[in-house]
Design a protein that fits this description.
With about 375 residues, the chain is of the alpha/beta class. About 40% of the residues lie in helices and about 20% in strands. Helix 9 links the parallel strand 11 and strand 12. The longest helix has 17 residues. The structure holds flavin-adenine dinucleotide and NADP nicotinamide-adenine-dinucleotide phosphate (NAP).
Length: about 375
């Protein structure tokens, strides 16, 4: 049987350990998933899709807040078979991300006059930023608790909840070394909104709830455009701060395993060297064996002023330009919002300065660089 997104493979989780130290402000973990018996294959640069379930404690809290038993029969849009609300909330829909359609439903069902008024005021808010910010601070459980007089039916609620989607993770192992295993490098998402602790569904599912050694982790391989050059002699430059380092562990492991001759340069960054230097031992071994040609690190919180990977690019601009002139591929992985934008700006500046080009010519140079498939990004 072929396994894919529509028919995920029930895999076994065979390793789970912390990469960041207990004293880190982050919780970054390494996971290994067995592919044995699946027939699944992967290549460097691909991602793994994981179907999570919601935290049972979150389901219980929502049932309590909404006043349901969990036995209420509901149907999920596009699936006519009725299921219990408890199962729908555990496996099928997201418990976060309520929309103003849901606020409208609460308004329509509210029986207490002050709650109806407060909901009407929220719906009428004219400032779009304020309107967005208020709802972003809230999950379904908050709204049920704040407006207890509104009692929509279980079916009405489920129809306004988003489908629980699989999450993608860049694969951090190489198939040449681990044909029957996939490794992941995951930052566990925990934060606070509206004064309450929140957690990311899938990263905490992997960290806290997925069972070890049981064939019940639903996965699929998502192919990517992102990947090593076909020619093993081509130099590669990899920029991967934080969990962005995942595919580059795969790249270097693959080239080392196959004895590829091309030089490999990694830029890695994270908060503190002592607590957040992901896979430090492996990089040291690759440097010693020559599989990794250069490693430049930027630990942002080890000194008063922030230092980021793009600062290391600037410091090594002449050599980086030389590598690019020698045909190097340039890869970026990790945070899309800030890091990838800033690295892109640093690359443009470097091309302009080192290549003696106007900023406009540098833009054209980078465009062509991308078109040639030599500038690849896997950002999220
Ligand atoms: C191609 C690709 C590759 C990826 N590779 C990796 C990888 O290698 N490693 C990795 O760790 N992740 C990776 N990701 C991200 C991953 O898919 C998930 O998005 C991530 O694990 C969060 O999922 P979650 O279910 O735990 O959190 P969710 O339940 O999806 O919650 C995340 C949401 O919580 C909110 N949120 C998060 N932090 C805060 C905050 N501080 N304040 C307010 N709101 C906040 C935001 O709305 C955010 O979208 C990748 C994503 C893609 C698309
Ligand atoms: N799209 C998203 O919502 C998204 C994407 C990626 C990560 N995250 C969140 O961040 C957490 C950890 O992610 P992660 O481990 O992949 O990495 P990360 O925490 O985003 O960052 C790793 C390193 O990059 C630094 N950094 C911050 N801004 C930067 C910039 N503009 N340019 C270059 N480097 C920059 C960080 O420094 P400082 O922190 O010291 O500034 C840190 O040293 C997760 O909990 C995740 O939720 C969210």
């Amino acid at each position: 049987m072929a396994y894919d997104k529509n028919n995920p493979f029930p895999a076994r989780l065979v390793d789970r350990r912390r990469l960041s130290s207990p004293a880190s402000q982050k919780d970054t973990r390494h996971f290994s998933v067995s592919l044995a018996g699946s027939g699944l294959t992967y290549k460097c640069g691909d991602s793994l899709g994981v179907f999570p379930t919601n935290n049972p404690a979150a389901v219980a809290a929502l049932l309590r807040a909404a006043g349901f038993t969990g036995d209420e029969a509901v149907t999920i849009p596009k699936d006519p078979a009725p299921i219990a609300l408890r199962e729908a909330w555990a496996k099928r829909v997201a418990l976060n991300g309520p929309t103003y359609k849901f606020v409208q439903l609460l308004h329509d069902r509210a029986t207490a006059a002050d709650q109806k008024e407060a909901l009407a005021a929220r719906l009428a808010e004219a400032d779009p930023e304020k309107k967005k910010a208020w709802l972003e601070q809230r999950e379904f459980v908050d709204l049920f608790e704040e407006f207890p007089s509104a009692r929509p039916s279980a079916q009405e609620v489920v129809e306004l909840q988003r489908k629980l989607m699989p999450r993608l993770y860049s694969i951090s192992s190489a198939p040449s070394r681990y044909p029957d295993e996939i490794h992941l490098t995951v930052a566990v998402v925990r934060y606070e909104t509206n004064g309450r602790p929140r957690e990311g569904v899938c990263s905490t599912y992997l960290a806290d709830r997925a069972r070890m050694e049981q064939p019940d982790l639903p996965i699929f391989v998502a192919e990517s455009h992102f990947g090593l050059p076909a020619d093993d002699n081509v130099p590669v430059i990899m920029v991967g701060p934080g969990t962005g380092v995942a595919p580059f562990r795969s790249f270097v492991m693959d080239r080392a395993t196959r004895g590829a001759k091309g030089p490999n340069w990694l830029f890695f960054g994270d908060q503190r060297k002592e607590h957040d230097f992901l896979y430090a031992d492996e990089w040291a071994a690759y440097l010693a064996s020559g599989a990794l040609t250069r490693l430049d690190t930027a630990f942002s919180r080890d000194q008063a002023a922030k230092v980021y990977v793009q600062d290391r690019m600037r410091e090594n601009a002449a050599e980086l330009w030389q590598w690019l002139q020698q045909g190097a591929y340039f890869y970026v992985c990790g945070d899309a919002k800030r890091m990838a934008k800033d690295v892109d700006a640093a690359l443009h500046a470097l091309v302009s300065e080192q290549g003696g080009m106007t900023p406009e010519a540098a833009v054209e140079w980078v465009k062509q660089f991308k078109k040639d498939g030599r500038y690849q990004r896997d950002v999220y």
